[in-house]
Specification:
single chain; 343 residues; mainly alpha; Rossmann fold; Tyrosyl-Transfer RNA Synthetase; three-stranded parallel sheet; two-stranded parallel ribbon; 5 strands; 6% strand; binds adenosine monophosphate; binds tryptophan
Length: 343
């Protein structure tokens, strides 16, 4: 965990994060989320990771594909190094307390807060009238995910920062409204070289599973050839690589490839540039390609193997959900009591 991060002393450090099973995992998910989750787990901090299927259905999901994507995501977590014995790994809908606490938070959060969320504006687009009510309430459910476990730290990519600020606002308002110090004011953990991995075709756009061009991203299911081709064809500029970080200014594609190299090799951007400064992309790309293939193909192989054993995946999710409920259920019960629900 980051040194100097402030946590209310009353709460023991606990990490929570979630990923939507909305089909396909990218290198962005791996470097911005999964790899960092595994690193956190390996530091021995209690960690809870959730496949947020209730969030996924805020936009239409084909039921058969949703079930497949949830299992594939679980396989992705395990293949990335998350150990279901050490961490709690489960899917949101098997722990009904998430939806129950989300309802309370729907009554704490204000319409004005939700309307300011950029993800809502982006996803609802011009046709807000036709977006689901769930899409609008999405951040209150996310706050419930986190606060249901009194989680103190939430590792995410840059794009989730605003949602985490809203989670803090909900915790603060709840505590104030009811005159309690019940929910922690959670710290976002957005750190490392790859909190925002960009498209390989356009350095100004986030690498995303929803980009129409498959060449824009590396999928966790890509084989060695696909990875190598995508890196070879990645957009770059004609200059050599700089030796200092300042030299990446105004060169989004170069910055992105260097960030990816740094994150995959567990180095800082400064360390990478000290090594590769002065090299042309014709030399750097094969280095990156080799590194990416070495790091990523064992993950795709392991995911494919795990997907042959769906019963085991389902058992892991069931067991994880039971363990999650043991923590969640007393916290929900206490919340109901604070709010004045007769039990
Ligand atoms: P999602 O797939 O949108 O549910 O995102 C799951 C996690 O991956 C979140 O923590 C995101 O912030 C992170 N993430 C998704 N895309 C990227 C990206 N291109 N770069 C870094 N992190 C990402
Ligand atoms: N909104 C997150 C995303 O799209 C997923 C998410 C749901 C999440 N609940 C969470 C992330 C709780 C961290 C903590 O990436």
């Amino acid at each position: 965990m980051t040194e100097g991060v402030q946590t209310s002393p009353a709460f023991t450090p606990r990490v929570f994060s979630g990923i939507q099973p909305s089909g396909g995992l990218t290198l962005g998910n791996y470097l911005g989320a999964l790899k960092r989750f595994a690193d956190t787990q390996n530091k021995g901090i209690e960690s809870i990771y959730c496949m947020v299927d209730l969030h996924a259905i805020t936009v239409w999901q084909d039921p058969a594909k949703l079930a497949h994507a949830t299992r594939e995501l679980c396989a992705g977590f395990i293949a990335s190094g998350i150990d279901p014995e050490k961490s709690i790994l489960f899917n949101q809908s098997q722990v009904p307390e998430h939806a129950q606490l989300a309802w309370i938070f729907n009554c704490v959060a204000r319409m004005g807060w939700m309307k300011r969320m950029t993800q809502w504006k982006d996803k609802a687009g011009k046709n807000q009238e036709n977006a689901s009510l769930g899409l609008f309430a999405y951040p209150a459910l996310m706050a419930a995910d986190i606060l249901l476990y009194h989680a103190t730290h939430v590792p995410v990519g840059e794009d989730q920062k605003q949602h985490l600020e809203l989670t803090r606002d909900i915790a603060i308002k709840f505590n104030n409204d009811f005159g309690v110090e019940f929910f922690p004011v959670t710290e976002p953990v957005i750190e490392g070289a790859a909190t925002r991995v960009m498209s390989l075709r356009d350095g100004s756009k986030k690498m995303s599973k929803s980009d129409p061009s498959d060449m824009s991203r590396i999928n966790l299911t890509d084989d060695a050839d696909a990875i190598a081709t995508k890196i070879r064809k990645a957009k770059t500029d004609p200059e050599a690589l700089p030796s200092e970080v300042d030299g990446l200014e105004g060169r989004p594609e170069a910055r992105n490839l260097v960030n990816i190299y740094a994150a995959l090799s567990d180095q800082t951007v400064e360390q990478v540039l000290a090594d590769v400064g002065g090299k042309q992309f014709s030399e750097f790309k094969p280095m990156l390609s080799e590194l990416a293939v070495t790091k990523m193909t064992p993950i795709s192989t392991e995911m494919a193997r795990l997907m042959q054993h769906q019963d085991e995946i389902d058992a892991i999710l069931r067991r994880g959900s039971e363990r999650a409920r043991e923590i969640a259920s007393p916290i929900l019960a206490k919340t109901y009591e604070i709010v004045g629900m007769v039990r």
